[in-house]
Amino acid sequence: MNTLELPFELEKIRALVNCLDDAIANAVTGNPSEAGDQALCLVDLLQQHIDALIDSADSLEVGAA
After folding, report:
1. pLDDT at residue 2, as a whole number
2. d(C-alpha 24, C-alpha 39), whole Å
3. Alpha-helical segments (H) within the chain
4. How far apart are CA 5 and CA 13, in angstroms?
5. Buried b (16+ CB within 10 A) or exposed e, 17-52
6. Would you say the C-alpha torsion 21, 22, 23, 24 has a positive or negative sign?
7. Residues 4-58: pLDDT tens digits?
8. What pLDDT is attached to residue 44?
9. Distances (CA, A) of 16 to 10, 12, 22, 32, 61
10. 4 to each of 1, 54, 57, 63, how far by Cα in Å?
């Protein structure tokens, strides 16, 4: 994978995480449990890391140009 493909692949992962986050939130809205709360926390943490990777890839792309 070259540096031009990396941001696109990470954007796809971010979209999937957003969908997963929404699905989990909908599943636990009526009666949140500890497991559901932990899952939401983990998804949020994963999303933060993916966002950081995307930002890094964007800065690498700008630096290479």
Report:
1. 62
2. 8
3. 5-28, 34-64
4. 13
5. beeebeebeeeeeeeeeeeeeebbeebeeebeebee
6. positive
7. 777 887 888 888 888 888 877 777 776 666 767 777 888 888 888 888 888 887 7
8. 87
9. 10, 6, 10, 22, 23
10. 8, 12, 9, 12
21 in Cβ contact with 45 (< 8 Å):
no
In the block, tokens 């690498």 appear at 60
Q: pTM above 0.70?
A: no
Query: Is residue 65 pLDDT above 60, yes or no?
Result: no
